[in-house]
Amino acid sequence: TNTFASGFIGSDPTGTISFPGSGSASMQASYFVDGLTSITGGGTLSIEAPATTRRYFQGSGGALQLSSPFTMTKTGTLSCGTISGFSTFEVALGATLTIDSANSTPVLDSIELLNNGTINYTATTVSGNYLKTAAALITNNGLFDIKTDQPIKETASIIGSALPRKKAAASHSR
Q: Residue-wise over 108-143: b if at least 16 C-beta within 10 A, else e?
């Protein structure tokens, strides 16, 4: 485990902070990345103090464990892996998170997914993957655009000032 007890501000020259492989990192103080926070492989990133990233990608496994709020301010993709803990993953006003479930079924476990921006749910029926929620709370104050017939399964509660929008089913006429 790599522990960052005095915080983390910055990134590499491309603006990317990557957490690949099977290791773990613990952010115990402030965390701000002006680029991309990327979790891939089987690694785990634990956030133990308020954290902000412009872009977020969870693409081939791994876990984000939250005991403090995590805010995404621009764009992000959730293709697989787990976001868990007893805190909040916020999609900020003006930000867009795409949940495409492209590589497997992502899991939201006991967190609040706070949407103040836009969430596009685009999992395909071809992949067979979906979004799994385990005692998660989805607070929707922005646009939650369901662009698929793939379900959101398990035990999520959806509350907030805006209802999710579901695309109309495709109709075919000859």
A: bbebbbbbbbbbbbbbeeeeebbbbbeebbbbbebe
